[in-house]
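Hello Y.,

Per our agreement to keep a running log of every chain we model this quarter, I'm adding this entry. I've kept the format consistent with earlier entries: sequence first, then predicted structure.
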Amino acid sequence: FDADELGLSLELPVAPQILEATRRADHWVEIRKFMPSDAMHFHARDGATVPEGAEDADLAEGLLGVLDGSRSVGEVAELFPDRRFHCYKLLAEFVRDRVARPTGVEDLLAIAESIEKREPKRARELVRRGLDREAHHVELLTAEARLSERLGDTAGAASARKLVAHIHLDAGRTAEALEQLELAKRLAPSDPTIVERCLSVALLQGRRQDALQEGLLLVELYRAPGLHARAKDVLERLQRVDPDSLELELELAQSRVDCGETAMAVKQLLRRGK
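Predicted structure for the entry above:
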């Protein structure tokens, strides 16, 4: 030992420390059988009480009091910084003895909804933890969109709405999908992927006028950053819907010029002129 270490005047017996370290290493193996991740959430079962013979009754009581499902294992342990190991050990015993149970995504959603008015940031965090488990959970995604919009994150809200619309479309719920797409369009009016999906649905349903309206809007969005080839593809699709439209004919010719297909554009207009 150097002089500084000797100056601390610490006299800890080595053997008990090694035994305690070994004991804890063995316990951690058992703890992780019941709590594989610190990101898991648990809540006390209704009417749960501290089991008889608990190693630390006061800590067990305090632990039961905070197991409401809103905190992860890591967050619960942070509430007892000087008793972290014992906290993990007791919590594992609670799970083993069915005093506490894992918090499901439906539970997380319910907790988030109960606090979203007073703690929207915390509520969105809980919703996102649920989405980490079930990325396509419609109710969680809807809550994510609602909370993101409340917190001013319009991009995040629009993204969640788009995913909800995609899930509805896959399930054949077209009306619900259109409702979500309209909400997403309001949040992100310059997002071409939203308008593209609206156009596809309108074409699928045979809503000719809506398809033309969505298509021309999409052409404007593609032209703004110079995506002329995509704009031309959209106009060609629209022309198949309304082959007699002079407006579409002129727009398509302009897009062909933008794409460097001037000769084809002139030939197209001459044919139409005849």
